[in-house]
Amino acid sequence: xxxxxxxxxxxxxxxxxxxxxxxxxxxxxxxxxxxxxxxxxxxxxxxxxxxxxxxxxxxxxxxxxxxxxxxxxxxxxxxxxxxxxxxxxxxxxxxxxxxxxxxxxxxxxxxxxxxxxxxxxxxxxxxxxxxxxxxxxxxxxxxxxxxxxxxxxxxxxxxxxxxxxxxxxxxxxxxxxxxxxxxxxxxxxxxxxxxxxxxxxxxxxxxxxxxxxxxxxxxxxxxxxxxxxxxxxxxxxxxxxxxxxxxxxxxxxxxxxxxxxxxxxxxxxxxxxxxxxxxxxxxx
Length: 284
Hints:
By secondary structure, this protein is α+β, with helices and mostly antiparallel strands.
């Protein structure tokens, strides 16, 4: 997955954890390798992850089955127990592969007191086999009427870019600076996410313009069969015309009807506005 690759963890280490001690403990057999990227804080450890991470999991390479993976993770957990007293591997999300249970079992096997506790939520929409019209029909009436009303008089044009360059980055930053959002703590990480995705063919950067001026921006990537919404922002001066909502409508329609993704993932956090667009929340 896009968030369980060595390249992803290296980006996090470089841009967000440069002042921390980052560890990559690893165990392997002839055919399989498991690596558990971690950050050290005294004798405690935490996942090499933050709010840019939609989920956390070990890096798994090779063709090992579940029993092999459990054994390798338990070996890592046993080594860590010799030198550390506490570890948190939030955010674990069960995407069907059962990784939260597998990690809990591995640490328990190695002698840790291992607990799974809900700490946040992750909104997703399962859109496999749907067209946008049927997805949209299931949205709340207030959202649908807002898009209909705002879309009538809006002089906006929406664009979806698959490449990243200085001009597009400047447009994104201009929108973000004019938005309601706090200053980005690690802007270089956001650009790295976009550039890495562009290299992989996974970037979908939505920009809404009024004439030439960018007024809304959304950073999406496509990871396997899932469209991931990393960042959304719009110019607060345009609030009455809702360019961000109109751009979301455009992006969702594109992802469902053109890209034909199976799922749309709104990332970390149970913000109320996400409920209008999503079907369900998964525990993190």
